[in-house]
Amino acid sequence: MIRWKGNICFLLLFVMSYALSAQNVRISGIVTDAKNGESLPGVSILLPETGKGVVSNRFGHYSVIVPPGIHELEVRYVGYRALSEKLKLNADTIVNWYMVGGINLSEITVSSKRLKLSSPLIGVNYLTGQIIEKIPVVLGEKDVLKTLQLLPGVKGGNEGTSGIQVRGGSHDQNLILLDGVPVYNTNHLFGYLSTFNAEVVKDVKFFKGSIPAQYGGRLSSVIDVSVKEGNLKKHGGKVSVSPVSGRLYLEGPIKKDTASYLVSVRRSWLDIPYRALMFFSGDDEKVGYSFYDVNGKVNWIINDKNRLYLSHYQGRDGFFNQYNDTLYNSKYEFNWDNYTSLVRWNHLVSPSFFINTSVYYSLFRFNESTLIDKKIGYEEFTKSKMADFSVKSDANLNLDNNTLNFGYHISSQLFMPSMMAYKNLERDTIFESVTESRVYSAAGYIENEYQIHKLTIKPGVRILYYNNGEHKFFVEPKFASVYKLNKKHSIKFSFQRMVQPIHLLTNTSLNMPTDLWVPAIKNIKPATSWQFDLEYTTLLKNDIDFTWNAYYKPIKNIIRYKQGVSYMNSTAANWTEMVDVGEGLNYGTELMLEKTKGRITGWFNYTLAWALRKVEGLNNNEYFPFKYDRRHDVNLVINYSLKETKEKHSEISVLFKYATGNAITIPVEYYAGAALPGMRGLSDYYSGLKNYTAFPYPNNYRMPAFHHLDLAYSITKKLDHNKERNWTFSVYNVYNRMNPYYYYKRKEDHYQISLLPIIPSVTFSYKW
Length: 768
What we know:
Largest sheet: 22 strands, antiparallel, barrel
Mean pLDDT: 84
Low-confidence stretches: 1-22, 104-112, 673-689
Radius of gyration: 27 Å
């Protein structure tokens, strides 16, 4: 009876809100780029006389309710000329805005003003493709994930890699989406590059605090990468060359102002000169590595209320080692692939009601194989696969001072953590070991953002049904709020519960393809966490914003390999026999200063954090430091616009990073384990084992502090017929700091290995 009364009260409040909104008029429409027709997300539509305002969604749609009468509207978006117009409004009106680029690049910002004061969400950052292009990186390869590493609360993996650890969580606790599709392995080049080609990135939304209810399945963060839609007006493209890869980007209209296409290809060429050298040398041994990725997208505007998107991504890395002589032939291969495919339908039910429906498929797999023929006759291979087929809808209903978001997500996931096979070709014997399982899940959510004078609250709930042979339900309550003290100061508070029903088994920090995705089962429960956030935001003088945040996040049901165990050397019949289950405790404080306008822009942030783990039977059952328990973390990014004319723009970018060293373990004993991919000798093909060190007391030693300084100089020249040429000169690790990558032990001494000294690079691009 009480539950029914609560539902009736909610329904009455909803009807009253709708009735009140009916007394006003609604302005709605879509904001697009006037030059290429792409929709613009995150545009601020403001009414200065009332103090009201809204932000366009990721598809450019906006809706705002005002009293009847004459109103002035201001439309603002970073990198575009502001628009202003007075409108006489006596009835619901559709107003589409076409924005023209024209503000110089020094005004591009990592985080829009719209997030600073009025939004109840905490720990949210927006990145544009232009910001990503500015950051100095190793060998000139611009990277989404490496840019995110420069934000407060975010730790990188080993030096130069694109791993992401957020607020004490491991990299599998991040939900990484490409156009709304989860990507289960995000790395090329053994972790030194991410799968996201910066050429196609439209924007990135990063959530680490109060995560909206539409996202679920992870504990630490959401990284939502949107791909460009393609030019609806004219054909164009871009060619880019770096020391690592070459990139080609093409876009244009299929039918002008109605449908467009986008195609982008990237391929490494590190293997090309080496292959040529080996071919002419006549050496018996050949080694090679390469990667590629392809992005494709079609955007079709069916009519004013319906739009259809088709998109596809695929990427592959391949390493091989081949040996041929008169005695035997051997070939070792190590490959991994990512595929994502998406069909998305946007439907505008009414000016206030917007629905986005998606059907997608995501696949990750790897294959490791060894073949020795002629006299020996031996073959072995190991495979792993993770496949996800899902349907989801997200709806947005805008009422006066009231925004309702709700939707569902249905998934079928196939897990094949490992399949091992051994064949003796001479004796015709075969051994195979396969582990495979399928799980089903369904989630529904609802959240309501409501404004009461200076206070805005956003309560919500997500309910997860999970079927892995057993039927389980999980409830994830969420609450976010903001109180505006005045025009320049606000205080925010939020809490949330997160549930992660899948785990990642890993021995490394690189998010290697040998990391294995496994489902929560009867004996291994889903990981869960609570997170509490408090934030203070103020707008200082000279366009400087200051944000302070404190968080507390306990985690339960984290799994890790048992001491001395990996997926390759265990004799366990099931992966559940190879893991321990533990818990985590993460807390800290973050502050950020950001300058968003003028010739000098950039940001400074500092993080003080604790990331602890506890596993029964280890360290006397007490908490010990997580690998990425870096107490202090400092990032400084400065962009200085040297010259701005109609024909030329030049800029200097400076990046400095300092962090407490990683926690590592000093080994004290040895165990037998599998060799790393590509490192096995002939004798290892039968045993497959080498001697490795073990660590009964985890992370009992701290590496020296990590720091480096990077510089980049970029010059862009506009040519005839809207063509553009860019040269970027960068230097990574300017003062040649030899940061430790790992340590190894020889007798009683420990030795440091460093990989990245000072590295200059040049990148060239031509755009038409």
